[in-house]
Amino acid sequence: MPNPEKATIIEEVKEKISSARLAILTDFQGMSVAEMTELRRLLRDADVDYKVYKNTLTRIAAEQLGINEIEKYLVGPTALAFGKSDNLVTPAKIIKDFSAKHQHLKIKAGILNKKVISPEDVSSLTNIPPKEILIAMVLGGLQAPVSKLLSVLQAPMREFIGVLRSLAEKREKDSTAKVDSEKLPDETLESSTPQEEGTNEGN
To answer: Could you tell me if 120 and 137 lie in one domain?
Structure first.
């Protein structure tokens, strides 16, 4: 049973994971104080929290949230970056770009919508176009670019694309239904008596 201090930290980790769209686990062993300061600044400017927690407390917090298969990534020093906005690309890109310049920083894994994803999955998030362009691609029916995009993205992002496609289909059906309903009064006008027209709320 964790003591009160550890229990408080566990609750903090749970809250941060739950409120984050994306959490990235990193290995920072060997990084200098200056490098850590620079990385924290870059992430802070992007509204991303970057904190170090004990692996045991992180594991307990994750397990209490029903997040499995995270224990194998909790080896050695671990810092977590919590992306709070809907933009999944920014935190992944900052850490990926920083690790390319500073070899001591490594991506261990990620947590996307409370599911553990691999380091490769985290890196693949940087290939996603901005949200506005992505939505325009799907709603505009540009099937070829979407198919190409899906070949790059992993399962969690395929779910997101599926949601957008559903919205696009619903939007198209609603538009069709609206056009049909607008035609009804004219058709009714031709076949209705004057009394029926007066009682029709649509006229």
So the answer is: no
